[in-house]
Amino acid sequence: MAQPKIILTGDRPTGRLHLGHYVGSLRRRVELQNSGEFDKIFILIADAQALTDNAANPEKVRQNIIEVALDYLSVGIDPAKSHIFIQSQIPQLAELTVYYMNLVTVARLERNPTVKSEVKMRGFNTGIPTGFFTYPISQAADITAFNGTVVPAGEDQEPMIEQTREIVRKFNSTYDEVLVEPSILLPDNKSCLRLPGTDGNAKMSKSLGNAIYLADSPAEVERKIKGMYTDPTHLKVEDPGHIEGNTVFTYLDAFSTDQDFADFLPEYKNLDEMKEHYQRGGLGDMKCKRFLIKVVERMLTPIRERRAQYEQDIPGVYEILRQGTAAAEAEAAQTLARVKAAMKIDYFNDGALMKEQIEKYSK
Ligand code: ATP
Ligand code: MG
Known about the structure:
Layout: E1 6-11, H1 19-35, E2 40-45, H2 47-51, H3 58-75, E3 83-86, H4 91-101, H5 106-110, H6 113-122, H7 130-133, H8 135-145, E4 150-152, H9 158-174, E5 183-185, H10 218-226, H11 247-255, H12 258-264, H13 271-280, H14 285-311, H15 314-342, H16 351-362
Parallel strand pairs: 1-2, 2-3, 4-5
This protein binds adenosine-5'-triphosphate and magnesium ion (MG).
């Protein structure tokens, strides 16, 4: 039988989702979901992971579960095709994590570049919580519990998927061929691998206050784009400007289409022509920003409208989460049973063990 194609991906409920999530993962998820090429799709709201660096603030995590769920539904995740579920409600994930911990060294975790940079960014002043340090292992549990083969995610997730693959190989060679190796599916547009923040910072992130949220109002989007980081050497309109590191152009790379040029800025056929003009000099930042506002608004308008509809039916959204979680738990329970059997720690189902011991004591 061919290996079923299964998607597992998710987000931490530490805030509403933003444009970085959209281009890094959400947009792709919806395309994959609607392609009909996947046997199963699981989308996890990673509240247990969010608690690893928010232990003292469970209320923040609790409030943001519904926000992330609303964002999912608003971008077009369809509960009839994708199971949306809450990580902490699936005890099997914590159990798998415990067993996988034995297969990973502390030194290996210390080498994870994403964890390193996140530790630096968060500046834990009383030390790194063990749960945070080990979250790549818990992520391996999330992926393997559902036999995930494809993980659509941003570039920062590469070390996590590599860690997961190592755990899978170690488990399968130590015990039995039970787990499936996943692969990451990165955005094919380079600007989307790690969308910068509006401040020009390397990553748009909920935690850095440099994000444009999918649920922002048109006025907020306009304010944020108008205040965006551009090229600090481009002082007068006539000055030649730089594209590299210019956040407005990175966003245009990520979002604009030729149709946007035809409709909103017909003096250029496409982004390349606009970039050339900017580099030559004579194209002002404000004009670029006004175009970007239109591009982003065209994309966000239908998302906002769908969100507004779901906001009117919060019990319905919780019902979607409840059903998605039940489906996910059934799947994770099957994997855990196979894991425990492979490790030979399913004592009460292990007839061979009892027989062996009866014989041992009957001599
Ligand atoms: P936090 O600051 O709490 O870690 P976050 O904004 O980094 O939040 P996550 O929930 O950690 O968001 O990330 C979820 C998914 O979104 C991952 O697949 C990640 O790669 C992707 N992602 C997040 N930010 C970006 C970004 N700026 N560009 C591209 N992908 C992103
Ligand atoms: Mg993150």
